[in-house]
Amino acid sequence: MPGLTKSLWVSIALLGLASAVAAEGDKTRRAERLDPLVLDAATGFSITSYEIETGVYYRWRIQADGLEEYKLLAPGLFRESWIDQVVIEDKEVKPFGLHAVEFDDEGEIDIWFIPQRPGEYPFYVEGLDTQGFRGVFVVR
């Protein structure tokens, strides 16, 4: 365009490059999808162990059969992770922190998070952990 100086063109080009680099470095652009955890009254958890890595963005889908009330706790994992959002019926919640999610009926909840510290973090359903509702996240 006439009237723009060379330094202004360089500034515009650098701004575009910086925006592209920032977008590529945004860990929340694409989540790694974990296998869904199904809470089944007859059999307990469908999965009892997840192996994940620090600094990776994950989506954890939890599905309940609705035959019981389930209060799923993962306090250590949630405390040592950055929780981006919790999605319930296409409605997003942007929490400051998270301790548990609870199902009163059949449904699903997605938790989007980035683990920050390695370790082993149990997850369980309160009151049903001895009946097949206990698992662990191994964070490397």
Strand content: 35-45%
The strand count comes to: 12
- Tell me the major beta sheet: 7 strands, mixed
How many individual domains?
1
Distance between the termini: 52 Å
What is the helix tally?
Answer: 2
Unreliable sequence segments = 7-23
Q: What CATH architecture would you give?
A: Sandwich
Summarize the structure.
Residues 1-22 form the signal peptide. By secondary structure, this protein is an alpha+beta fold. The protein has two helices and twelve strands.
Give a verbal description of the structure.
This protein is an alpha+beta fold and 140 residues long. It has a single domain (28-139), classed as Cupredoxins -  blue copper proteins (Immunoglobulin-like, Sandwich). 18% of the residues lie in helices and 43% in strands. It is built from two helices and twelve strands, in the order H-E-E-E-E-E-E-H-E-E-E-E-E-E. The strands form two sheets. Strands 1, 2, 3, 5, 7, 8 and 10 form a seven-stranded mixed sheet that branches. The N and C termini lie far apart (52 Å). Residues 7-23 have low confidence and may be disordered.
